[in-house]
Design a protein that fits this description.
The chain is an alpha/beta fold and 264 residues long. Helix content is 51%, strand content 12%.
Length: 264
């Protein structure tokens, strides 16, 4: 899937990975870029820098996602690539109790990290099916394939996002539609916030590094785009011996907690 000449939507496009994707897609020759974000001023600034269109939107609201899609279809006649990139993370208030996050944290994470992908599919699939072409790039996380120490909300919602992405890929392939899931570990974005944690063990990539991996993954039409290549090995260890993997994660968790205490 080549980006050149394509009509592309990027949600969460005002900063971090989303901003880097917009800039890289522009460099690759995208025909049109629709930059959507809850931060309307940020979306406007990024869109202006690439000659794109900004849409202020809350991806937890289906009407807003429909409006993003409608903007692309009314102005350019189609959506070639829908990058459902917005995401959110919340730490467990009590690291020893995965049930400690309040319902509001679960509901927000479910809306941003899961339902936003569902809404993107609802909005873009009818046109893609009619044309027998199109692509979804859903930003998920390696946490959806592995886990995230200290955030049951993040880990659980990202696992659900993987499940939806798999189903989307299986159900749409015969209609000429592709799906890629972007699953990095630590990336230098506001979400990371400079914090040390299990996601940092293999180094912190820049958003530009991740955007480069996306271009390679889209070119190869890869389902899983893994900027941190070590994630494949971790997945193999997890599925090869689940109990051993759990024991290893327990040790990693203890190291993260002890390291955090030592840094205070």
């Amino acid at each position: 899937m080549k980006v050149a000449g394509k009509v592309v939507i990027v949600t969460g496009g005002a900063s971090g990975i989303g901003k880097a994707l917009v800039e890289r897609f522009h460099k690759e020759g995208a025909k049109a870029l629709i930059v959507a974000d809850l931060n309307g001023a940020g979306a406007e600034a990024v869109a202006k820098s690439v000659g794109g269109i900004a849409v202020q939107a809350d991806v937890t609201k289906e009407a807003d996602v429909q409006r993003i899609a409608r903007t692309a279809e009314e102005k350019f006649g189609r959506i070639d690539l829908f990058c459902s990139n917005a995401g959110i993370s919340r730490a467990d208030p009590d690291i020893d109790n995965p049930g400690s996050p309040p319902d509001a944290a679960w509901e927000l994470a479910w809306g941003v990290n899961v339902m936003a992908h569902v809404y993107a599919a609802r909005a873009a699939l009818p046109g893609m099916i009619a044309r027998k072409s199109g692509w979804f790039l859903n930003t998920v996380s390696a946490a959806g394939l592995l886990s995230q120490i200290g955030s049951a909300v993040y880990s659980t919602s990202k696992h659900a996002a993987i499940g939806f992405g798999e189903h989307l890929a299986i159900a749409t392939k015969e209609n000429g539609i592709g799906v890629s899931l972007l699953c990095p570990q630590a990336v230098d974005t506001p979400m990371l916030g400079g914090a040390a944690g299990s996601q940092n063990v293999d180094g912190v990539l820049s958003p530009d590094d991740v955007a480069g991996a996306v271009i390679k993954g889209l070119d190869a039409e890869t389902f899983l785009i893994l900027p941190h290549e070590q994630v494949v090995t971790y997945m193999q260890r997890k599925t090869g011996d689940y109990d051993r993997w759990i024991r290893g994660m327990v040790r990693l968790r203890r190291g993260v907690i002890d390291g955090a205490k030592g840094g205070r």
